[in-house]
Amino acid sequence: MNPTRLAIARRLVVKVGSALVTNNGTGLDLSAINDWARQISVLREQGKEVVLVSSGAIACGMQRLGWAKRPKSVHELQAAAAVGQMGLVQVYEGAFAKHGLHTAQILLTHDDLADRKRYLNARSTLNTLLELGVVPIINENDTVVTDEIKFGDNDTLGALVANLIEADALIILTDQQGLYTADPRKDPSATLISEATAGDENLESMAGGAGTRIGTGGMITKVIAAKRAARSGAHTAIASGREIDPIIRLANGEAVGTLLVSQTQPLAARKQWLADHLQLAGRLILDAGAVDALHAGKSLLPIGVIAAEGEFERGSAVACISPEGREIARGLSNYGSGEARLIARKTTQEIENTLGYVDEPEIIHRDNLILS
To answer: What CA dihedral angle connects 84, 88, 91 and 97, to 10 degrees?
Structure first.
């Protein structure tokens, strides 16, 4: 395992599974949760930013309600999630408070990250929380989702969050040592894979198998999550949460578990996503100065926008048009078409006076923009 890959990571997503959070379904593992909080506080002191994706709401709710077996009824699952989420939040808040850290609860569904407007809102909120030194704790919003409960998993959510905030690494803690060449419970000759390339087709056949009676994932979902995370340049580590200090050791570059390496440069992955997978909802007509600024790698400010064409919402993909009528870039707009028309030709300082609020100082941030 190359020790520098994770050691240089500044922004990390840590995902902990249900079996760990609930000690295999016997109730919230207070000792483990307190230990994760301690480890994350150490990383914060090292200047790293950490987002925690935690499973366990349904499992915790099952324990609180006295259910030994995971129910199949969607409404019962939603009820268990609602009950269990209360316990999770209380325990996490108390654990991090011991280290002087504030936490924030964020409940997401996959749809939140597929919708461009909600995607930008979630991204802005998470970035702001990290800037404030807060530790965001994310879980799937099992109380309102339906299909996600039956088919979703927080390994996938962890990967989507890693893409959302452009994390450098995704750490998945599980009750297994890592990824093996075969299921070690069935094949005594199986060996641990210390490092491989995320997206390698052979990994999925090695992973096989479903999750535990408490969780819904399994190693296959972790391998697929690593493949997703790699698209935005994030490396993924899969390791046992029952190791001593696994989060600290992984973040410091120690060889623990399995490292699935991304071969994609983060910026290239994000730009490719913008270029290939978005339909354009409108157009922003720019002046020559704004065109030069974009070519210089800068964000698009309102003062450089002459006009907004079409009807679009915050988070929509729009084309940036030169004074000669040529598309020179495309990106995700921080403002809807009505707002864009009002703040066009305005300085950043004039946005609040014009709208009464400021969502972002740029109409399109350079991270959400690709030159055509």
So the answer is: -150
With CA atoms as reference, report the closest residue to 317 among 164, 117, 123, 163. Answer: 117
Query: 154-164 and 219-230 helices cross at what angle (nearest 10)?
Result: 10
- Beta strand spans in the chain (E): 11-16, 49-54, 103-108, 135-140, 169-174, 195-197, 235-240, 258-261, 282-286, 305-309, 317-321, 327-332, 369-371
pTM: 0.76
* Cα atoms in the 13 Å half-sphere on the side-chain side of 143: 13
Give CA–CA dist 194/177, Å, rounded: 10
Closest C-alpha among 204, 236, 329 to residue 278:
329
pLDDT tens per residue across all 372 residues of the chain: 565 789 999 999 999 988 899 888 778 899 999 999 999 999 999 999 999 999 888 888 888 899 988 888 888 988 998 999 998 999 999 999 999 999 999 998 766 776 667 888 888 999 999 999 999 999 887 777 655 433 357 888 898 899 889 899 999 999 889 998 887 778 888 899 999 999 887 887 777 654 443 344 478 889 989 988 898 889 999 999 999 999 999 999 999 999 999 987 776 666 766 765 556 889 999 999 999 999 999 999 999 999 999 999 998 889 999 999 999 999 999 999 999 999 999 998 899 999 999 889 999 999 889 898
C-alpha to C-alpha distance for 300 and 229, rounded to whole angstroms: 28
Structural domains in the chain, sorted by start? 4-267 (3.40.1160.10), 278-371 (2.30.130.10)
How long, in residues, is the chain?
A: 372
Contact 10, 71 (CB under 8 A): no
Dihedral sign computed on CA atoms, order 306, 308, 313, 315: negative
Tell me how crowded residue 13 is: count the other CB atoms within 10 A of its CB. 29
Instruction: Find where tokens 């690593």 sit.
Output: 226
How many CA atoms, within 13 angstroms, populate the side-chain half-sphere of residue 99? 22
| Residue 301 DSSP code | P
With contact defined as beta carbons under 8 Å apart, do 85 and 139 qualify?
Answer: yes
